[in-house]
Amino acid sequence: IDNQLRGRAGRQGDPGASVFFLSLEDDLMRIFGSERMDSMLSKLGLKEDEAIIHPWINKALEKAQQKVEARNYEIRKNLLKFDDVMNDQRKVIYEQRKDLMRVEDVSETVAGMRHEVIEDIVNDNIPEKAYAEEWDVDDLVEDCKRLLNLDLPIKEWAAEEGIADEEIRERITDASDRQAAAKIAKYGADIWHMAEKSLLLQILDQTWKDHLLTLDHLRQGIGLRAYAQRDPLNEYKQEAFSMFETMLSGLREQVTQLLTHVDLRLNEEDEAALRALPQEAHETREDPAFAGLAPAAAPEAVENSEDFSPLPAMSDEEILAAEAKLGTIRHAEFDGDDPTTWGRTGRNA
After folding, report:
1. Where are the domains of the chain?
2. CATH classification of 103-261, choosing from 3.90.1200.10, 1.10.3060.10, 3.50.50.60, 1.10.10.10?
């Protein structure tokens, strides 16, 4: 505490000394001080606003400061335990985001999310070791429409003899994979992969921000669990982990739902230009700087990289001889009083 007070005194390292003034009515002495101090000072008959200088007072002040520092340390230590829970989740999300940023094609990640969503909806609507009559076929059909944008004959599949939940899962997965392949064929691999990566990163960022806000709300009221004889830290860890799993599940559903329903709209000219750009650049190697010039003004396109031949190496004597022939480069004369000379002066003159 003393060091913090010295830092706020404003001397900023200038030579001098610090003097501390403390009132017995301050919170430091009133809350953390000795209870016998007031009674003893009242017996001495000291007047109000009279200075008290005594080693016993200094010792009582040091003990009060130690109590305050110990209390603040425990508070910071407890807060750090809560921060570690959030920090562990932050490391997982940041590592996944870095992996997504390193690659150009995230189709495998998106396909894995889509397959996990299919696994979840099948498990939710088809109980384990249940007969086909016990399946919730209507909800499964609605989930496929809502999340996968697929209208599948699941009712007819469920009516087949000897059908199992694994076969239903495989048929839905095959249909979703064919739908994804059709989108790649429709828009082109480069355009579709770019859209997948952009949408995945946007949804990940927004989902993580919403999760942090939810954790803050949970942390503000978790201390009330102590009234129910429960450890607030353990309660926070359990609920934060459950919320993190819910966030990841929601992330997979949002990414899958958006990518299966999205329809990229490109102008015919833009789409043709995007498809022809890599091939044109490979065949002609035309410099885009001369794209707007007339054919006569622009240099001819180089058909083959072999047309470029390296310049011969020059020795030091040849370089000096060339500089002697060129001479010193002189800039136009500049006259501050003559405006006609202002525009002819070189930029670096």
Report:
1. 2-81, 103-261
2. 1.10.3060.10
